[in-house]
Amino acid sequence: MKIWAVYFSATGTTKKIVAAVAQALCRRLQAEERAFDFTLPAARCGWPEFAEEDIILFGVPVYAGRVPNVLLRYLDTLSGNGALAVPIVVYGNRDFDDALIELRDILRNNGFMPIAGAAFIGEHAFSRRLAKGRPDEKDIECAKRFADGIFEKLKQETFLGPKLPGMPFPYRGYYQPRGEKGMIDIRRVKPRTGSSCNGCGLCADVCPMGSIRHENIRECTGICIKCGACVKKCPAGAKYFDEPGYLEHLRQLEEGLTRRREPELFL
Ligand SMILES: Cc1cc2nc3c(=O)[nH]c(=O)nc-3n(C[C@H](O)[C@H](O)[C@H](O)COP(=O)(O)O)c2cc1C
Fold this sequence. Notes:
One of its GO terms (molecular function) is FMN binding. The protein is an alpha/beta fold. It is 27% helix and 17% strand. It has two domains: 177 residues, Rossmann fold; 53 residues, Alpha-Beta Plaits. It binds flavin mononucleotide (FMN).
């Protein structure tokens, strides 16, 4: 039996949670640990082969209350071979809305058997203040408790999928922020590059959409999903967003969502 940590994680928070659950579960089961990170485009040309006896801990961040829509086509090429799976979503302290249900359905529709689920909190991709530093120690302890819960559940002879919060298929629409002048639409917003850019090219290496080219790292030539990878990982702090709608939404989030949300485990 292998325990798989499988995740998309542009700024690393989903990776931390899925890895913590995987490590703890491996220790409990004395099982082999494997990881598959599909954040970068080069990884998304196929999937590992999962075996029926494997357990797949499958994590994605919540984008607009749902599974990131740019991943849907790729996720539909998954093949679970009857393996047990645990959908895990990580969100930036607003809400996970229907993302966990949607991820559970994607896994189920592609041949996995979901046996548990969880929603954790990660520092918001748009911000360095909202859910700052999360997942933190308390979250990692909770990830370990989640692994214990999965371990206990595995002793059962048959598995009932857990009841998850959210609206079942066809789900609610993607969350859309509202500003003073109506809906805020940030879909076409792209990052800008400040004068501190030293041309290192890390932004091109970490863009999950492959939208920043090494030949011209100051420009984002393809689709931008606002994942925060180029902004948060730039060693010179040179990438930023300055579009007014984006900034208005950011202000709303940072000012309105200061209460700490806690992880939710569904076993
Ligand atoms: C385009 C976009 C939309 C997001 N929408 C939500 C949301 O609806 N609710 C929420 O709480 N966080 C939202 N977030 C924040 C991310 O879910 C959060 O920062 C997550 O920890 C990022 O995971 P990662 O570090 O693995 O990339 C959004 C982030 C992005 C980039």
